[in-house]
Each structure stands twice: as C-alpha cells, then as structure tokens.
Amino acid sequence: MAEGVLVTRNLTKRYGPFTAVDNVNLNIEKGQIYGLVGRNGAGKTTIIRMVTAQTVPTGGEVELFGATAPADLSRMRARTGAMVETPSFYPYLTARENLEYYRIQRGIPGRGCVDEVLNFVDLAKTGKKKFKNFSLGMKQRLGLALALMDHPDLLLLDEPINGLDPEGIVEFRNILLDLNREQGTTILISSHILSELANLATHYGFIDGGHMLEQISAKVLAEKCRACIELSVDDAAKAAQVLEQAMGVRDYEVLPGQVIRLYCHLDEPARVTQTLVEGGVALRSIEQKGANLEDYYLGLIGGVRHG
Ligand SMILES: Nc1ncnc2c1ncn2[C@@H]1O[C@H](COP(=O)(O)OP(=O)(O)OP(=O)(O)O)[C@@H](O)[C@H]1O
C-alpha cells in the first residue's frame, strides 16, 4: 500500500462566524505532486498554514508521515519544507549570503547544502548580484532553495508560480519535476490557475469556499476531459457492433444506461448517426463532449472564475 505522507481529516478553520476551511479531507501519498486548485479566497493558504503549524485548526486533524500526536507531529514537521508567501530575504545580500544566514539561523550543519540547493534551482552563478536586483522568477527560485535546504521529504508550496512569466513557469516546473524524480520528494503545490499545474501535477484537489469539491488523479482527469461523441441509444451493444462493422470503429467505450462513447470519427457525427439508423439502432441523443481542464474546473466550481 502506498505510504500516506499528508492526510487531513475534517480539517476546519473558523474565524469567528466565518468558516475558511470546512471539513477538508486531503490524502497525499508518497511521490505524488498534488495540485491544490482553488480561486482566490478558497482556503488554500489556510490549509497549508495549518499543516505547517502557522495556524491552529479549529477542528479536525493533520497526519504527517503517519503521525497525529502533537509531539510526533512536530517531529515529522522537520521532514517538511514550505514556501508560504514570498519569503523575506535581505535585499542587499546575495543569494548565497541570504541562504547562509538562514542555514545558521536554523542550525543546519554543513555549508555544502547551500551550494547544493543553489545549483539545483539554477542560481549558483548569480555571484555578487544582490537579492533586490533579482527577477521575480529568481526570487521564487531562491524561496524554493530555502525550502529545500534541509532535504524535505514533503514540500509545501503556496502559489509559487503566481505572477511568473511563461518561461519562469517552465523553469520552476522543471525544477519540481527533477526534484520529484531524482529525490522522490512529495510535493503539494497550490494555484488558482489550473493550467499552471498541467504537465506537473499527478493528482489534483479542487477546493472552493473552504470545501474540497473533488480529488482526482491527473490520469483520470485527462480521461474525463477526453474529447468524444456520446450517444444514447436503445441498445449499446448492438450500436457498438454496427459501428465496428460499418465504420471500423475501435476506440470506444460502453457506459451503463445504454450510452456509448466514441473517441474516433469525432468530425463525422452525421455519418455516425446515419450508420446507426441504417443498422437498426434507435438513437435517443448524440452529443459532442470533452472539456479542457480549465472548463472542467470551472464546471466543478459552478461558474466563471473570479480573480
Ligand atoms: N486571519 C484571518 N482572519 C479572518 N479571515 C481570514 C484570515 N485569514 C484568511 N481569512 C479568510 O479565509 C478565506 C481563505 O483564505 P486563504 O488565504 O486560505 O485563501 P486562498 O485560497 O489561499 O486564496 P489566495 O489565493 O487569495 O491566497 C478568505 O476568505 C480569507 O479572507
């Protein structure tokens, strides 16, 4: 069985009468890159802050690497690295000086880790350049380097690619993929833009108004969003047989309720209809389906995205 890295059970945060996070059950296993997706104010930061103990939950529990008891949990937090909001670096220090400062402050032994993480995030050659002169992409990568300095098994990143240009997004994404592949690091990354997490996340959690709407693997999500023609007929088995014989249809699936989905001949709905009718199949409805990820997400949250 896959190892549970981060599990939350009915995790809840209330601010007075307002519920920011409402009974959220997260389930993140070792090696996953979990995209926590939700529009502004959905509760993403609050969830991450409860996991990192920056905010105390008002209900529910957090389990990290199997631990839930407070003392164990705090030991397990040492196995996590987090980047929540832009870390405060000293503007007049270089990348290396800033990390060295935090290394000493956190009591991480050995200077080697600073060079190691700077290399990893491609900031090793920034020399005397001061933090204040860094691009946003460089600043975010330095924040990531700081979170990685103690070799975490779980990395928690709150909107790290927010505001980056397309090139910066690709760079950041590649670093995370390398980290996940080479070191097996489990990653939780939040974003309000689903497409930013495409080609990165292996799993998604969609959150809105403090509620977890759906947790789904990237694979199943891609399947759900696959373009198809969906036919409702009187006899799906017969329809499949007719389509196979008359049109050579192979890529299809039969669903419960006499529904059949074709993943081929997408530009020939009229021919499909005619073939079925000629084959003696009664057609109740025919619909072109298939959403892109963004549409799927908008459908889930029930409307137009704000912010
Ligand atoms: N200290 C606080 N007191 C009162 N309300 C708060 C507090 N912190 C957060 N909230 C509210 O809780 C809700 C969730 O906020 P949160 O920052 O977790 O959302 P988010 O999904 O991270 O959004 P964003 O992308 O805008 O940061 C918001 O409505 C926010 O205003």
UniProtKB/TrEMBL annotation:
Keyword terms: ATP-binding, Nucleotide-binding, Transport
UniProt cross-references to SUPFAM superfamilies, sorted A to Z: P-loop containing nucleoside triphosphate hydrolases
PROSITE patterns named in the record: ABC_TRANSPORTER_1, ABC_TRANSPORTER_2
Domain ABC transporter: from-to ranges: 6-234
Record has Nucleotide-binding as a keyword: yes
Gene3D superfamilies: P-loop containing nucleotide triphosphate hydrolases
Molecular function via GO: ATP binding; ATP hydrolysis activity
Family to which this protein belongs: Belongs to the ABC transporter superfamily.
Name this protein carries in UniProt: ABC transporter ATP-binding protein
Organism annotation: Lawsonibacter faecis
